[in-house]
Amino acid sequence: MIGDIPVSAMIITFNEERMIERALRSLMWADEIVVVDSFSTDKTVEICGKYTDRVYQREFPGYEKQYSYALSLTKHEWVVTLDGDEALTDATIAEIRRELENHDVQCDAFALRRKTFLIDRWIVHSGWYPQYKVRLFKKSSGAYGGSDPHVSFHCSGRVKKLNGDILHWTYPEGLHSLTNTSNKFSTIIANQRLAKGRPFSVAMMLLAPAGEFLKKYFWKRGFLDGMPGLFLAVGSAYYVFCKWAKMWDITHRKTGFEGDPEKQ
After folding, report:
1. Which of 152, 202, 232, 238 is the 20 to 30 Å CA partner of 160?
2. How many CB atoms lie within 10 A of CB 264?
């Protein structure tokens, strides 16, 4: 409890044994830690059990539903949440304490800056920092929303930005993880766009990736992040290309010849 305000912490996980302990240690100041695991096949659940007895397993129904389910399991009005590959710094925890010890808290949520480590450095340009994320909030002030996989807590009240960082260790296997994630997420987005009736566009498939590269590498000064900055710019362009290309691919496979040898 901070002052007279109890705080719940929550994490959703899947195969996070390499990172999860760091996240859990940074949440030990909370009054409870709730973990919802999507049936990990590594030691994630075992590690989580060392820090909390509130570990639940549930098939993954999508990010919005999984986050909402985890939130429903928390006991307290104020909730802090992290991903399994994140952690709060000591300075951030101290800042949160100062804010909540103020008996006249004038906001419903706090947004923290996320700083990401990629390959060999912390990324401080490329449009990746500061990425403000609402991670401490009154759960009655809003709900999770957005389109998978880009889901966040949407607060209907006042959100205050803090100076503290959430540290994020992304793509632990380097470029292999980066391309795998781009492939996974672009498939989700392509299907969502088609389900909403958005048409495929050749022009967007050709032009949007180039625009994304220019934005990340030059406008957002990704060149100052060294080689990882170049990888991010190219990877972002590839992700955008894949979203549009997969829209064409999905539509073509549904309306095409379906393997009829006479139509080859």
Report:
1. 232
2. 6
* pLDDT tens-place string over residues 41-68: 999 999 999 999 999 999 999 999 999 9
What mean pLDDT is predicted for residues 93-108?
A: 89
- Residue 200: how many CB atoms within 10 A of its CB? 18
If one counts every other C-beta atom within 10 angstroms of the C-beta of residue 132, the result is 14
This prediction has a pTM of: 0.84
pLDDT top residue among 101 and 89: 89
Is there a contact between 205 and 244 (Cβ–Cβ < 8 Å)?
A: yes
Taken in order 136, 164, 63, 44, is the CA torsion positive or negative?
negative
Q: What is the distance between the alpha carbons of residues 138 and 78, in angstroms, rounded to a whole number?
A: 5
Token pair listed for 119: 């390959």
- C-alpha radius of gyration, the chain, whole number: 20
Size of the chain in residues: 264
